[in-house]
Amino acid sequence: MLEFNATFFVAMFSFIIFMIIMNSILYKPLVKIEEERDKLISKNYEDTKITTEKVEELKKQHELSIEKSKFLAKTNFNKKVSEYKNRRNGIIENAKNLSKKDLAISNAGLEGDEREAKLLLKSDILTLANLAASKILGYQTQIKEIDDDIVNSCMNG
Fold first, then answer.
1. Phi-psi sector, 141: left (phi>0), alpha (psi -120 to 50), beta
2. How far apart are CA 151 and CA 53, in angstroms?
3. Residue 117 · residue 154 · CB < 8 Å
């Protein structure tokens, strides 16, 4: 059986004092440290959350900036390509015009040369015709004019 004497009450009293002393020396500081740690973890979590949101916003801005840069680069590229095509077409058009002028000048020169050749050929054919007629007929004849069709057929081969 359990006896309740003075030793029991002294042990109970010393245990209560021990618990009070342990509470103030050990348990309260541990609880305080645990609360500070929880606050620090919560603060770090919130900071991480805010930083993550900022990073996401910066990513979006970066992607928008890249898209804008791509669009501007493509626009500038297309603009330069069309400018160079227009310049190329202008140069080609100028070259065609110069070629047409040169061709017209050359054709005019060739036509003049052709007329000269026809006149020279006409006189040579007239001389040859008179010579051939006199050889064939045996006496001197005088052919005065030659048809232009004969001259053209001689020039064309």
1. beta
2. 97
3. no
pLDDT digits (tens, 9 = 90+) for 63-79: 999 999 999 999 999 99
> How big is the chain by its Cα radius of gyration, in Å?
60
Judge if pTM exceeds 0.70.
no
pLDDT digits (tens, 9 = 90+) for 98-114: 999 999 999 888 888 88
> Phi first, then psi: what are they for 28, rounded to 5°?
-60, -45
Q: Which amino acid is it at 138? A: G
- 41 Cα distance to chain centroid: 51
Helix pair angle (148-156, 28-137), 10° resolution: 130
Q: Can you read off the two tokens belonging to residue 75? A: 């626009």
- Which residues 6+ apart lie within 8 Å of 99 measured at CB? none
For 118, counting Cβ atoms within 10 Å of its Cβ (0-12 exposed, 13-18 middle, 19+ buried), the class is: middle
Number of C-alpha atoms within 13 angstroms, CB side, residue 82? Answer: 5
Question: How big, in percent rounded to 5, are the helix, strand and coil portions of the chain?
Answer: 90, 0, 10
Task: Read off the tokens for 123.
Answer: 């006189």
Written as six digits, the tokens of 56 are 């996401």
